[in-house]
Amino acid sequence: MKRKLENDELGRLDVTDFKKAEKSPILLILDNIRSLNNIGSVFRTADAFLIKKIYLCGITATPPHKDIRKTAIGATESVDWEYRKDTLELVKELKTMGITTIAVEQAENAVMLNSFHTAEKSTMALIFGNEVKGVSQEVVSASDLVLEIPQFGTKHSLNISVSAGVVVWDIWSKINLQKNKKALKNQG
Q1: How many domains, the chain?
Q2: Is the peptide bond before 64 cis (omega within 30 degrees of 0)?
């Protein structure tokens, strides 16, 4: 028989320890997200994978808000975030800092997520767009890379919070696989 673990058995960080923990080299940019529940869900994903920071841009609502808090269940307290009015200006600024900007979108010459490779320490900013319009064309054009989640059904998109979970998990896994391979190589 398998027993579900209780919350106190999970060994989770408290907010203070989360703030001190080494973060993943990933930033998230939410480009004009209208759903407060989607915003809260992205905060939870960011907390789960030790994301450095979330940028909330344009019409994207900011904490504190009861509907964000409801789905974030405390992640707005652990994950660093900042509001920026203009997504394009933020992307340009991050690029000058040597951060790779990646629009998650369906576009010409997009790299499929399953084919994407990243350097372990390379900081990247993943840009997720509006529920209806996606990442704005001007931001897609300004990004260093466009990343697409392969899809095989009849629908042409995933919910933004689902997209964020899929992409963050995939990239986080690839980064940590590289770390583990390097650690094993150094031991042997």
Answers
A1: 1
A2: yes
